[in-house]
Amino acid sequence: MSDIGAYQATPAPYEAGFGDYVQLLKPRVMSLVVFTALVGLLVAPVSLHPVEAFAAILFIALGAGASGALNMWWDADIDAVMARTARRPVPSGRVQAGEALALGLGLSGISVVMLGLATNLMAAALLAFTIFFYAVVYSMWLKRLTPQNIVIGGAAGAFPPMIGWVAATGSVSIEAALMFALIFMWTPPHFWALALFMKADYHTAGVPMLTVTHGRRSTRRHVLVYTLLLVPVAVGAALTSLGGPLTLAVTVALNLWFVLGAYRIWRRDEAVAEADKYAVEKAFFRFSLLYLFLHFAAYLVEAALRSFGAGGW
């Protein structure tokens, strides 16, 4: 399954519990998917019935969980040798690889079919493509092939708000495309910041992360460049019907701070970074999560203000 040797699961210390199967679905990743998909659905110009909206978010969440289970099945060998992932259900032996595969495939089929029935076929097709892209294009191909794995593979995490928008409207718009682009451009600096202080894990696992193939100095330059490229996307989204004065103010403040953080990472000397245990890189990584959350929260607040006759352009 990979170039680092056949995966051997650790014998299960106990029978798998419900929590172990939940962990297969990558609940932390799922929470981000659910939030951005919900925002995409709620800020759309067409409103769904509350029951339809709940069903849409539920099945998008199940699709995200399916992707996570398939990823854990395929990546069990490299997860087993990375300190950050070694205790995941499959490499730790608590869940068998075949169970993870079956769960992933089953939830994939259920989520796609039910989203199509609950909303429309275009939303279902986008969800199916997202699962395929993450499980096959990213996990099985890009992740172990190229240091651009995060750049291209970031599309998988960028689709949820577009799926939410399409579930409500049945079509793609510039607003949906810009929400997609925001997450797509945010993903590389977010994960490269993580890679800067987790390089040893990726090196041990044989994953060609940029820090492994080009070194930390090159990765620092890439973080800065992609952060600068992210800024016009974020500002552009704030100038569409998604935004308004409040959103634009939030966007400008967040992006100034994000660029400052990327600049500090670019200026960092490796000896200094090692001495303080990559404190700046870890702070940037944590802030990147807040950065994305606050952008989408601003779109949601702006939509709520518009419903009361305020906000918007």
TrEMBL record:
**Which leading EC class covers this enzyme?**
transferase
Report the Pfam families cross-referenced here.
UbiA
Which species expresses this protein natively? Tabrizicola piscis
In its UniProt entry, what is this protein called?
Protoheme IX farnesyltransferase
Query: Gene of origin?
Result: ctaB
Q: Which UniProt keywords apply?
A: Cell membrane, Heme biosynthesis, Membrane, Transferase, Transmembrane, Transmembrane helix
Which Gene3D superfamilies does its entry note?
A: UbiA prenyltransferase (1.10.357.140)
**Is the keyword tRNA-binding in the record?**
no
Please explain the role this protein plays, according to its UniProt record. Answer: Converts heme B (protoheme IX) to heme O by substitution of the vinyl group on carbon 2 of heme B porphyrin ring with a hydroxyethyl farnesyl side group.
PROSITE patterns, per this entry?
A: UBIA (PS00943)
- Stated family: Belongs to the UbiA prenyltransferase family. Protoheme IX farnesyltransferase subfamily.
